[in-house]
Amino acid sequence: MTKATAENEPLVLLKNVSRDYGDGKTVHALRDINLSIVRGERVAVMGPSGSGKSTLLNLICGLDEPTAGVLKLEGIELSGLSDDARTRLRREKIGMIFQTFNLLPTLTAVENVSLPLRLQGVPRRIAEKRARVMLERIGLSERTTHRPDELSGGERQRIAIARALIFQPPLLLADEPTGNLDSATGEGILSLLDDLHRQFKITLLLVTHNVLAAAHCDRILTLRDGQIVKEEPVERTKVKVR
Ligand SMILES: Nc1ncnc2c1ncn2[C@@H]1O[C@H](COP(=O)(O)OP(=O)(O)OP(=O)(O)O)[C@@H](O)[C@H]1O
Ligand SMILES: [Mg+2]
């Protein structure tokens, strides 16, 4: 594929994507979703508990597969890739902040944060140096040698965020990143995301229940019972972001 073509492709494209769970009493977690996200766009996903938000993120990062429909990342259909190729794509292109953090319990904060770089073959000393800079940025420079069970819930969440951002991924998927944080810390994380967007044109899919967090995005999708029931641009009266 030529560069020009790759850049014209939406970064994320879903065509008639559905995800059913179970075979007896089927749960239709997502139903016939059509969604296109271009590079540099920030999309908030809102909707009640159980409406399919985390399922959507899991499909886009290739941790789960649609039961119907087509899902493409940079024009490449995920279902056409081997498990290895999908894992590689995820490591190189996608930063993920999970609702449940998914930190490795035996690793310290700095080891957890540097992990994505280590998996890409960056030497330990360099990876950990960058991890320390990141930890400082999110206000955790005093906690670098703590393991997850020695940290508070909010601190764990910030570690998970630092880990997702360490390699400035082109696509960041964030599941309630500010959900367990006090409002000042949450604001700090949101302004970090704003900075990353300004500096690196990061593309963001942000699941949140918080309208103030959603206002950091360009577009808000509302899911209900696995369907997109509303889609609206974020009005910016004071600041012109783009
Ligand atoms: N592995 C699974 N097996 C069966 N059902 C599942 C599975 N994962 C999710 N579901 C169901 O799919 C629906 C959508 O779940 P999902 O986790 O996407 O919701 P959500 O919008 O992220 O909710 P929350 O705001 O509570 O995190 C729910 O009804 C859930 O019970
Ligand atoms: Mg969820």
Key phrases:
242 residues, alpha/beta, Rossmann fold, 6-stranded mixed beta sheet, 4-stranded antiparallel beta sheet, 35% helix, binds adenosine-5'-triphosphate, binds magnesium ion
Q: Tell me the series of helices and strands, N- to C-terminal.
A: HEEEHEEHEHHHEHEHEE
State the end-to-end CA separation.
28 Å
pLDDT averaged over residues:
90
> Helix segment count?
8
Radius of gyration over all CA atoms, rounded: 18 Å
Give the strand line-up of the largest sheet: 6-7-8-3-9-10
Strand element count:
10
Concise summary:
The protein is built from 8 helices and 10 strands. By secondary structure, the protein is an alpha/beta fold.
List the helices and strands and how they pair.
Blueprint lengths: L2 H6 L3 E10 L5 E11 L4 E5 L6 H8 L7 E6 L2 E2 L5 H11 E4 L11 H11 L4 H14 L15 H13 L5 E5 L7 H18 L2 E5 L3 H4 L4 E6 L2 E7 L9
Parallel strand pairs: 3-8, 3-9, 6-7, 7-8
Antiparallel strand pairs: 1-2, 1-4, 4-5, 9-10
Question: Could you describe the 3D structure shown?
Answer:
- This protein has helices at 3-8, 53-60, 83-93, 109-119, 124-137, 153-165, 183-200, 211-214; strands at 12-21, 27-37, 42-46, 68-73, 76-77, 94-97, 171-175, 203-207, 219-224, 227-233.
- The longest helix is centred in the C-terminal third of the chain and has 18 residues, at 183-200.
- The protein is globular.
- The model has no long low-confidence stretch (mean pLDDT 90).
- The protein has a six-stranded mixed β-sheet.
- The chain has one domain: P-loop containing nucleotide triphosphate hydrolases (Rossmann fold, 3-Layer(aba) Sandwich).
- The two termini are 28 Å apart.
- α4 packs parallel to α6.
- 40% of the residues are buried.
- The chain is of the alpha/beta class.
- It contains eight helices and ten strands.
- Bound molecules: adenosine-5'-triphosphate and magnesium ion.
- Adenosine-5'-triphosphate (ATP) binds at residues 21-22, 27, 29, 47, 49-55, 99.
